[in-house]
Amino acid sequence: MDYMLFFKFFLGLVAIINPVGLLPVFVSLTSHQTDVERERTNRVANFAVVVILLVTIIVGQYILNMFSITLSSFRIAGGSLICLIAMSMLQGKMSEVKRNKEEDRESSGMESVAVVPLALPLMAGPGAISSVIVFASEHDSVISLVGMFITVIAFGVLSWLLFRMAPVIFKLLGNTGINVITRIMGLLMLSIGIEVIAAGLKGLFPTLVG
């Protein structure tokens, strides 16, 4: 098992989902909840994210085959989407690909925000799902699948710990600190998106892209 490969996959999830950047959103969405309710929201949200990503790993390739979409084409589409989200992160704001004004209004009236909008689409959004499908399609051996499962679960644990300490972290970093981290993650995410697009172009046009 190539541990560095899965470490890179783990860092990619951290950059794309950016749980640190979502801390203000988590604090805002759970501001009306008690400590017990906030912890339950944290648990349910991260469990939902893990389940969504694990299911994506299993059925992602079948979905591409169902619609006769080549991996190269999906790489270009997914990479473009990742770059779009990354550009918003570099400006210190959340892309409307993840969340729009209508969803903001709907979520403000919800009693439970764990699954929608926190887990989906804020965490397990289009960028995360597309990157997982691309990675799973490229590494489809049993050992690779086991490695991806472990990596996704490890990310879920990390995200749960961060959200559990959200009030403290948010107080220490403040908006400025979180915006700096979001911009750094956005730069890493933009690099990942460009790499994915380049691989897709190479697959579609092998004679043009050396």
TrEMBL record:
The chain crosses the membrane at residues 6-32, 44-64, 76-92, 113-136, 142-163, 184-205. The keyword Transmembrane helix applies. Keywords: Cell membrane, Membrane, Transmembrane, Transmembrane helix. Its main location: membrane. It is found in: Cell membrane. Coiled coil: none annotated. It comes from the Bacteria. This is UPF0056 membrane protein.
